[in-house]
Design brief:
Strand order of the largest sheet: 10-9-8-11-12-13-14
Number of strands: 14
Largest sheet: 7 strands, mixed
Radius of gyration: 20 Å
Length: 315
């Protein structure tokens, strides 16, 4: 990992623990900056060290509160651009607004594209992100996008569990490609939960496609928000004779009643990455395990900085 002074990593307030872990993997100290608020709530940013001519990375997942963290990131990017950084890479372990990636009803915005425009306008020369909700969001940017996958970390975790008669389950038709890629690496059969969503945040499980009887099922998704879909999926699999159900996801959004739903469910364990920091309630639940993606993101930063291939990290 590099220790050159030409590489700088700055962290917004969204996930400073992850940013610190990334810097440890890179063998550098976090960049120095000051974040504060005026009495009216406006965000104030100041970079407290020289970045002129340097290769700069800003680590900031746009998680809850999404708008505050996004605005903070935009101001950081602008401050670095005005401080004459040579190249600025926005590192978004979690890309907020990614679920609003298309015009799926009349008179609605494509919010993921709006965010992409804002990041580039603020000064991002490229983007490094992890498990986008929709891979085509890469095309919303007119700058290079490096899209990493949390799959290597998840595969390692599942292999260590030595789960008997494993089956990988997609929670809906849209996640089949993600689940199939994981099933292939684990040499496990694939099942699909067919569901109908009547309104945002509410889902109704219809039936399970595939044989899950007496199997240990692992539901795989890119994120868990209110956990309604997840819990319904667990119940559907158990109703079809599954022996036990685990779940793995990259982004632990866990909003609203999510943690309570998981604690009250028959889910054996939910494994998430630290792309988003866990709330104290989630940490205390005893049902949620956090996996570390800092080495993966650090490797991505190192590859970008050294101008080497990043494709080896897609495995």
């Amino acid at each position: 990992m590099p220790t050159e002074s030409r590489l700088k990593v700055f962290a917004g307030s969204a996930n400073q623990e992850l940013a610190g872990n990334i810097c440890e993997c890179l063998g550098i100290r976090p960049g120095q900056l000051a974040l504060s608020r005026f009495t009216d709530g406006e965000i104030h940013v100041q970079i407290e060290e020289n970045v002129r001519g340097m290769d700069v990375f800003v680590v900031q997942p746009t998680c809850t509160p999404v708008d505050e963290h996004l605005m903070e990131l935009l101001l950081l990017l602008d401050a670095l651009r005005r401080a004459s950084a040579k190249r600025i890479t926005a590192v978004l372990p979690y890309y907020g607004y990614s679920r609003q990636d298309r015009k799926d009803r009349p008179r609605v915005p494509i919010s993921a594209k709006v965010v992409a425009n804002l990041l580039v306008a603020a000064g991002a020369d490229r983007l490094l992100t992890l498990d986008l909700h929709a891979a085509q969001i890469q095309g919303f940017f007119d700058v290079p996008v490096d899209h990493l996958y949390g799959r290597p970390v998840i595969v390692e975790y599942l292999r260590q569990l030595h789960l008997p008669r494993l089956a990988v389950v997609s929670p809906d038709a849209g996640g089949v490609e993600r689940a199939r890629a994981l099933a292939k690496r684990l040499t496990a059969p694939l099942a699909i939960i067919d569901k109908r969503r009547d309104k945002p945040g509410v889902s109704e499980v219809m039936h399970v496609i595939g044989d899950v009887r007496d199997r240990t099922c692992v539901i795989v998704d890119d994120l868990v928000d209110t956990a309604g879909t997840l819990v319904n999926g667990v119940n559907a699999l158990l109703d079809q004779g599954a022996a036990q159900v685990y779940a793995v996801t990259t982004h632990a959004v866990l909003s609203g009643p999510a943690v309570d739903r998981i604690k009250e469910s028959k889910l054996k364990e939910l494994a998430v990455t630290n792309s988003i920091p866990l709330s104290e309630e989630a940490k205390a639940s005893g049902r949620i395990r956090q996996l570390n993606v800092a080495p993966l993101l650090a490797a991505g930063i190192n590859s970008i900085h050294s101008e080497s291939s990043i494709s080896m990290l897609f495995g």
